[in-house]
Amino acid sequence: MLVATLFLVAVGGFLQFVVEIPEPAEQSATAPPLDVDAIVVLTGGRDRIQTAMQLLESGTGSRLLISGVNTDITREDLAAQFGGPNTRFDCCVDLGFRARTTMGNADETKRWVGEKNYASIAVVTSNYHMPRSLLLLRTEMPDVTLVPVVVASNSSESDQLFGNVRVARLLVSEYAKYVITLLRTRFG
């Protein structure tokens, strides 16, 4: 009976997690910039850095941290892909090479935000990754205002959950990580 109850709670929690995965907002070129000090993008999914650069170019924040950059990637590599003569890449983008995990992203972001004395940041990551990212960032920086900017992730569309095994595995994995993170942050 206890096992069945725990199973139902786990399944119910997972379904609630999937339903509450935030939908990406349409980023319009004419939309006003977000009122934040800076932007942090957690690497790992396509379009995240591009979205963060678009925010920076539109006047959102004064600087951008790209957290979790692969050590094989150089600043020049990223500048060639996301910079250009009329961009703020050279002046206003910082690269973080320390983070290898989402917890590492939170630690790297906390250090950067502390060094720069920022009170508010836009957090750019994929929709399925946002809940755990915000949980970790809020735990590390409870006094910093976090504004989520959700990037579409084709591999995590919740309406594909039951028709795509790879998507289902990704979401189950992310839910398990979220639950573990929640328990760690609540109970140490």
From TrEMBL:
InterPro entries tied to this protein: Cell_Envelope_Assoc, DUF218, Rossmann-like_a/b/a_fold
Domain of life of the organism encoding this protein: Bacteria
GO biological process entries: Gram-negative-bacterium-type cell wall biogenesis; peptidoglycan metabolic process
Pfam families hit by this protein: DUF218
Domain DUF218 intervals: 37-176
GO cellular component: plasma membrane
Protein name as catalogued: DUF218 domain-containing protein
Organism of provenance: Candidatus Phaeomarinibacter ectocarpi
Organism taxonomic ancestry: Bacteria, Pseudomonadati, Pseudomonadota, Alphaproteobacteria, Hyphomicrobiales
